[in-house]
Amino acid sequence: MTKKFNRTLVTSALPYANGPVHIGHLAGVYIPADIYVRYLRLKGREVIHIGGSDEHGVPITIRAKKEGVTPQDIVDKYHAIIKKSFEDFGISFDIYSRTSSEIHRKTASGFFQELYNKGGFEEKTSEQYFDEEAQMFLADRYITGECPHCGNPDAYGDQCESCGTSLSPIDLKNPRSTISGSTPVMRETKHWYLPLDKHETWLRQWILEDHKEWKSNVYGQCKSWLDMGLQPRAVSRDLDWGVPVPLPDAKGKVLYVWFDAPIGYISNTIELLPDSWEKWWKSEDTKLVHFIGKDNIVFHCIVFPAILKAEGSFILPENVPANEFLNLEGDKISTSRNWAVWLHEYLEDFPGQQDVLRYVLTANAPETKDNDFTWKDFQARNNNELVAILGNFINRALVLTRKYFDSKIPQIHELTDYDKETLKEFVNVKEAVESYLDTFRFRDALKEAMNLARIGNKYLADTEPWKVVGTDMERVETIINISLQITANLAIVFEPFLPFSVKKIRRFINMDGLAWDQLGRIDLLPAGHQLNPSELLFAKIEDETIEKQIQKLPDRKKDEQAPEIKTTPQKANVAYGDFERLDLRTGKVLECIKVPKADKLLQFLIDDGMDKRTIISGIAAWYKPEDLVGKQVCFIANLEPLKLKGVESQGMLLSVEDSDGALSLIQPSKDVAPGSRIG
Questions:
Q1: Which homologous superfamily does the CATH classification assign to the domain defined by 576-665?
Q2: Can you tell me the distance from the alpha carbon of 2 to that of 6, in angstroms, rounded to the nearest whole number?
Q3: N or C: which terminal CB in the chain sees fewer CB atoms within 10 Å?
Q4: Is there a contact between 520 and 427 (Cβ–Cβ < 8 Å)?
């Protein structure tokens, strides 16, 4: 039996206030959320859209120290930039607030206190590195030292970015603080943990049995985590920037940002609706939907629901339609390498063309797998679809009305069989678009919306009113009336997708207040209704404009990449004979799984041509285990076995690190037999 909801609460992932937003953010989270919210509003549903900036965590403190300012200075700067970018692109939040607000501090502290009073946390004491000079415990990224595996002298406390191995700070040789440069010492520190393992049984039922309708990429990632077994996760850390842990013995400790940030949805709702927020978060007839990117699936489907369930009075998300990642011109979008299309810069180059980008990012949305944005595709979709199909039809219908009927809606007369066929065809569009929007298939919904414009274009081309205007004026009146009714329908169906363009269309046809339930009707514009002057909706984008954008990316990356690259000094020369001692071979991946309690490690079972061997590699951030099964890899076969997280690794996979720190496995260019020698 389908559950009945009276209202919908939509949240969009809180962007991190450490930099501006780019097209990957729009495509992954904010355009899909905005389409869905605008659609529900058109249907007259009770809905609110909650957003805000995530303003705590170590990266912000690192940036602040680097720039010689306070963390508050950093978040103030980027919160303003991000908020304006969303406003410029029509992302229709009911509130866009921030996690540094006083309301959020009180809400997050209260949430922690409530769970603490209920015994919802476990206290654990462990030893961590402490900087005596700076008088602070050090987060993993504040510690560098020599990697015990490859000798990289600048490995971080959580991972060596040279060999990709996942590390603990205590693994480093000659550790040093990045704050003061001094050698840190070990000190005991106490933290509070959310015992996710105790929530595993109900989470398995709730996700794997009760929500099989979730998108395959979301369901699959959740199942993978649950199958590995959940472990307690710290909800606090030693830091001076964030929401203080509200306990007497917790001086110098703040709520971990992954615990703090999702509560921002709640605090922002309280800020918006101080007297009625509870009906949105605690009523069973409220539908909660989280829009996020794939890197946040675990937090919104497993961790945050466990927090809400532990508190006991909050509803759980009904759906989490996460998107995958958007690449740019065949390469991963990267802030540090400046390989991105920033929203504020896009509007400098394409003023007034927000809807073009909204359209292209929706048409090419990474809904279940990573997709690629290219400037050539951007140009083609603008010129061949927005200009040649949607804009062309509306312009022709309005121009012909002005030419033949002084911009007044003509009467409709007897319908031909072809008229009836056309009307039946476009009436069916409503059901198709609606079914896709209800199931978060926005790319397919957009295709159906554009099909209505195609129907209109074909109708005008086939009926050719300009050819019968001298012999059958009643026929021309009918053709133009039908064309204008299609135009009014286009103003409804494109409202969720292209709000700026639809505002123009409604001005052209002099009609406000069109609602979703009117979609498919053929009497939206009455005879005699006066239209307003019109103009072209979209402009053709020339090759020269696109070439400038294509050239800007590598030029800008080259300019701004150099200061950011961290190169490891070349090690001392070795004798050729020493190199020859390495046994480099190819192998085939038979199995690949995540290593429990180690987010960055994958465990491979390799066919090495003679037997099977296990190899652990720190590349989980860049590959899904299931995507690697059956692939060929290159590895060092004669390394001394090494235990990592209790598993013996019998070799090392070869990978290459790009300037952004991303790792890519080195693979043979063609199929070769497992065990083949390299070199």
A1: Nucleic acid-binding proteins (2.40.50.140)
A2: 13
A3: N
A4: yes
Model pLDDT for residues 113-167, shown as the tens digit of each residue: 999 999 999 999 988 899 898 777 887 878 999 999 888 998 988 778 777 676 7
pLDDT at 664 over 90: no
pLDDT per residue as tens digits for the range 389-422:
999 999 999 999 999 999 999 999 999 999 999 9
The boundaries of every CATH 3.40.50.620 domain in the chain are 1-99+261-291+324-373+544-569
List, by residue range, all CATH 2.40.50.140 domains of the chain.
576-665
Determine phi and psi for 132, rounding to 5 degrees. Answer: -70, -30
Residue with tokens 């077994």: 229
Residues forming CATH 1.10.730.10 domain(s) in the chain:
386-518
What type of residue sits at position 34? Answer: D
**Residues 386-518, CATH architecture:** Orthogonal Bundle (1.10)
Handedness of CA 325, 330, 331, 333 (dihedral sign): negative
The pLDDT of 283-304, averaged and rounded, is: 95
Tokens of 77: 């700067």
3-state secondary structure 309-375: HHHCCCCCCCECCCECCEEECCEECECCCCECCEHHHHHHHCCCCHHHHHHHHHHCCCCCCCEEECH
Pair of tokens at residue 268: 């922002």
Residue 410 CA: distances (Å) to CA of 422, 472, 598: 18, 14, 70
Predicted TM-score (pTM) of the model is: 0.80
Secondary structure element (H or E) that encloses residue 648, with its range: strand 647-649
Q: What is the mean pLDDT of the chain?
A: 91
Instruction: Count other C-beta atoms under 10 Å from residue 587's C-beta.
Output: 25
3-state secondary structure of 599: coil
- Taking the C-alpha atoms of residue 485 and residue 426, their distance in angstroms, rounded to an integer, is 10
Spatial separation of the C-alpha atoms in residues 155 and 410, rounded to whole Å: 74
Residue type, 657: E
Question: Torsion over CA of 219, 47, 277 and 305, rounded to 10 degrees?
Answer: 0
In angstroms, rounded to a whole number, what is the distance separating the alpha carbons of residues 538 and 611? 62
In angstroms, how far is CA 519 from the centroid of its own chain? 30
DSSP E strand stretches across 13-121: 47-53, 95-98
> Mean pLDDT throughout 613-640?
88
Tokens of 501: 């363009």
Summarize pLDDT for 319-376 with one digit per residue, the tens: 999 999 999 999 988 877 789 999 999 999 999 999 999 999 999 999 989 999 999 9
pLDDT digits (tens, 9 = 90+) for 576-585: 555 667 889 9
β-sheet bridge partners, residue 238: 253
Closest-CA residue to 496 (of 522, 521, 514, 523): 514
Strands (E) located in 76-178: 95-98, 122-131, 136-137, 143-146, 155-156, 173-177
Residue 151, classified by CB atoms within 10 Å of its CB into exposed (0-12), middle (13-18) or buried (19+), is middle
